[in-house]
Structure to design on (350 residues):
């Protein structure tokens, strides 16, 4: 992904000022979505889609599994670091006392959630509609602890990140004959995009103005997707990647319409597809040893409960791998993705 020199200079200047003033670039950071950004909300759900056990978190702070689907930090954790926060937005459901600890934001994401409401229902995850209800509750708590004026300022100046869609395809559409026999891929994408549009409009109505949304990744390059849909090939599944590219084009078009329609909205689409595709297809040039397999177990299919302390074959050094389990990047890959997020999101924080 290429960025103009002026954008990069603005970013560096902003980060320099942040270090000098010891203040975050935005007052708060709110996160919605799926397992790519879940930091532990699913720990409290009766769901098999969890990551609150070893070896998840083995390279995180205190080597502790928090619920992150990673060996260490997520891309959003690195983003929070770059924005100048000294702590990460907490999993909303993990908080016993929801007061001052919400002043810098919160994370509402739930593994196996998506724009399509039935995806979350399949796995007893938290649908985006419920994540939005939790955010409304969070706003009320902010008013209680900060007062109406300060709360309104936090809400309007905060950064919002939405990461969803992958579960709708990988964990629902492609494996669900009730969907893929009834919907063409184009019709299903349009259905998802309508839900996306509704969600952004609802978030805007609640005061959000700086919103970043991740595109679909190259879903055909995820180790688990290659194992399930690759017809015994070790190459990325071209059809799945083509579907992702088509969806991302529609996502950009829909997002432009939203920006034209909603007053004061800053909306940026973060292209996750190309950076992750480059890491997979040019992994050695980017300092990685393995991109076909995840670090955990055989790396071909393990994720969530299949990636556990007894998984045979788990690698010793995850930093050499692009993927931690068969669907989620390692901390090392997330750091690369986070740099792209921040560089692409200059307009949101300036």
């Amino acid at each position: 992904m290429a960025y103009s020199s002026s954008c990069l200079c603005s970013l560096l200047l902003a980060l320099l000022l942040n270090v000098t003033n010891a203040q975050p670039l935005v007052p708060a950071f709110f996160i919605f979505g799926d397992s790519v950004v879940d930091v532990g909300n699913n720990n409290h759900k009766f769901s098999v889609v969890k990551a609150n056990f070893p070896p998840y978190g083995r390279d995180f702070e205190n080597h502790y599994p928090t619920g992150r689907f990673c060996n260490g930090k997520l891309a959003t954790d690195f983003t929070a670091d770059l924005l100048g926060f000294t702590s990460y937005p907490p999993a909303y459901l993990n908080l016993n006392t929801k007061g001052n600890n919400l002043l810098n934001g919160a994370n509402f994401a739930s593994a196996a959630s998506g724009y399509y409401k039935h995806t979350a229902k399949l796995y007893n995850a938290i649908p985006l509609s419920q994540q939005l209800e939790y955010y409304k509750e969070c706003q009320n708590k902010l008013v209680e602890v900060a007062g109406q004026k300060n709360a309104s300022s936090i809400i309007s100046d905060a950064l919002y990140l939405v990461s969803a869609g992958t579960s709708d395809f990988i964990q629902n559409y492609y494996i669900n004959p009730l969907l893929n026999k009834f919907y063409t891929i184009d019709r299903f994408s349009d259905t998802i995009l309508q839900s996306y549009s509704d969600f952004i409009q609802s978030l805007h109505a609640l005061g959000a103005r700086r919103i970043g949304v991740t595109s679909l990744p190259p879903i055909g390059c995820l180790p688990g997707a290659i194992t399930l849909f690759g017809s015994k090939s070790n190459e990325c599944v071209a059809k799945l990647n083509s579907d992702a590219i088509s969806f991302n084009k529609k996502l950009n078009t829909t997002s432009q319409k939203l920006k034209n329609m909603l007053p004061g909205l800053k909306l940026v689409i973060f292209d996750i597809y190309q950076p992750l595709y480059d890491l997979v297809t040019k992994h050695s040039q980017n300092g990685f040893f393995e991109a076909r397999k995840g670090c955990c177990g055989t790396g071909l299919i393990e994720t969530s409960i299949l990636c556990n302390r007894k998984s045979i074959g788990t690698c010793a050094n995850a930093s050499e791998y692009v993927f931690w389990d068969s669907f989620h990047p390692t901390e090392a890959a997330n750091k690369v993705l986070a740099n792209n997020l921040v560089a692409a999101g200059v307009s949101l924080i300036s």
Notes: Residues 5-349 form a domain with the Rossmann fold fold (CATH 3.40.50.1110).
